[in-house]
Amino acid sequence: MTHDPNCLFCKIIEGKIPSTKVYEDEELFAFNDIHPWAPVHFLMVPRLHIASMAQVGPEHAGLLGRMMVLAPQLALQAGCQPYPEGGFRIVVNTGEQGGQEVHHLHMHVIGGPRPWRRG
Ligand code: 5GP
Ligand code: ZN
After folding, report:
1. What is the pTM of this model?
2. pLDDT surpassing 70 at residue 119
3. If pLDDT is split at 50, 70 and 90, which confidence band does 117 have?
4. Which residues contact 75 (CB under 8 A, 6 or more apart)?
5. What is the average per-residue pLDDT within 23-51?
6. What is the CATH number of the domain that holds 76?
């Protein structure tokens, strides 16, 4: 499935549900988490509806690689301090026991001055 009309994040990507966008291109979309764990907390999602990391195959390697390459750049733009004093955390919850609540693959990028801790 490339798009799920019932999916919250598909609706956010389409603009049917408002969000605070931090990045978009032809493949990826990033927006602030509505319940941030830390001073910086945004979600990066592929426009393609992939339910979770459990559905990923070799055909998605380029897409996932782009997400990993983009995350540090967007983290700095979003206000994370540079490595090593600053930095950020990347979290990809997968499945019910992995703590995933929204079933559209997403990467949490979390950072900023501590204290903060979750996940
Ligand atoms: P998960 O638990 O699936 O890894 O993370 C889902 C994330 O989506 C949560 O951190 C939650 O705060 C965020 N979220 C849920 N609904 C919305 C929404 O309507 N808008 C935004 N911006 N984030 C949402
Ligand atoms: Zn979706």
Report:
1. 0.97
2. no
3. confident
4. 40, 88, 109, 111
5. 98
6. 3.30.428.10
Residues 114 and 70: their CA atoms lie apart, in Å, by 23
Say which ligand is closest to the CA of 4: 2
In the chain, the number of structural domains is 1
Atom of ligand 1 nearest to the CA of 8: 19
Digit-coded pLDDT (tens) for 82-98: 999 999 999 999 999 99
Q: Which of the listed residues 19, 31, 102 should we mutate to test ligand 1's pocket, taking the one with most ligand atoms within 8 A of CB?
A: 102
- The rounded Å distance from CA 4 to ligand 2 centre is 5
Confirm whether 1 is domain-assigned. no
116 domain residue, yes or no: no
Whether pLDDT at 11 is above 70:
yes
Can you give the residue range of the structural domain that contains 62? 8-111
Give the ligand with the smallest distance to the CA of 9: 2
Q: Which of 58, 56, 57, 27 is nearest to 44 (CA)?
A: 27
Tokens at 16, concatenated: 């049917």
